[in-house]
Design brief:
about 15% strand; binds coenzyme A; alpha/beta; 9 strands; about 250 residues; 2-enoyl-CoA Hydratase, Chain A, domain 1; six-stranded mixed β-sheet
Length: about 250
């Protein structure tokens, strides 16, 4: 449980809302743990047939809490972030994302594990891993080139370029771009309800078939990325970049 994760049931649809507005829904260990637990419980609950992951109308999430990165970097199989990433990678029930505003770092990489992604036209997707002295995570170094090809992946990962929701649809990262706000949540709920009305056995097998091979490789890549990421997180470049963010100044890399 986390006060920063809201869980709501609408019929057979479970909606998980990241809710930490004062920090732009930055994800803490507690929030990762609560999301992993909620997804795992939904997997065991036949009455849940689809899940929605969303933030507020202003912001999806600003990514991993930078203070957590600096003070208590957690990795390895027992860490909440690891459990969350594995849960979305291996989820057997349909995951639907509704993205308004910024989706930074894991805010974008988690979308790669969702089955349907609805974004605001002016949503801001960004993976500034290199800008922070870090490397890609969540299997994104495998999933992005597969989806986007190398040049676009390089644009997003080597430059840390931000893209709008409209461009994310063009890139194949999202299904539909809509006017910002409620329309994005409505589109996600409509899709989730449609899925929830379908025969669950057929949905489960179809998702398994279209993800076969991919989820297992993504999961292995995730482990490798995790090793590099932890190493970089303890390094001078990341310490400087993260401290600079907290101190609201430009980082200086010598
Ligand atoms: N971790 C911890 N705190 C965060 C955060 C994060 N990932 N993202 C934002 N915050 C905090 C800010 O420090 C600020 O706190 P303060 O009010 O105590 O000063 C508050 O949330 C509001 O953020 P701010 O940057 O002022 O809002 P904004 O609307 O101008 O910009 C973002 C929103 C999301 C674009 C911007 O905050 C951002 O880029 N965040 C960095 C995200 C990041 O680097 N994440 C790690 C990715 S691997």
């Amino acid at each position: 449980m986390s006060e920063h994760l809201l869980e709501e049931r609408t019929g057979a649809v479970l909606t998980l809302t990241m809710h930490r507005p004062e920090k732009k829904n930055a994800l803490t260990r507690d929030m990762y743990g609560a999301m992993a637990a909620a997804i795992s419980a939904a997997e065991d609950d036949d009455s849940v047939r689809a899940l929605i992951i969303r933030g507020s109308a202003e912001c999806f999430t600003s990514g991993n809490d930078v203070g957590d990165f600096l003070n208590a970097p957690a990795s390895g199989p027992e860490s909440p972030v690891y459990k969350f990433l594995k849960a979305i990678c291996h989820a057997t029930k349909p995951l639907i994302a509704a993205v308004n505003g910024p989706a930074v770092g894991v805010g974008t990489t988690m979308l790669l594990h969702c089955d349907l992604v609805y974004v605001a036209e002016n949503a801001r997707l960004k993976m500034p891993f290199v800008n922070l002295g870090l490397c890609p995570e969540a299997g994104s170094s495998f999933l992005l080139p597969r989806l986007l090809g190398h040049p676009r992946t390089a644009e997003l990962l080597l430059l840390g370029e931000e893209i709008s929701g409209a461009r994310a649809v063009e890139f194949g990262l999202a299904n539909q771009a809509l006017p910002a706000g409620q329309a994005v949540f409505d589109a996600a709920l409509t899709a989730a309800r449609r899925i929830a009305e379908q025969p669950p056995g057929s949905i489960r097998l179809t998702k398994q078939l279209i993800k076969r091979g991919v989820a297992d490789v993504a999961s292995q890549v995730m482990d490798q990325e995790g090793e590099y990421f932890s190493r970089l997180l303890g390094g001078a470049e990341a310490r400087e970049a993260l401290a600079a963010f907290m101190e609201k100044r430009k980082p200086v890399f010598n």
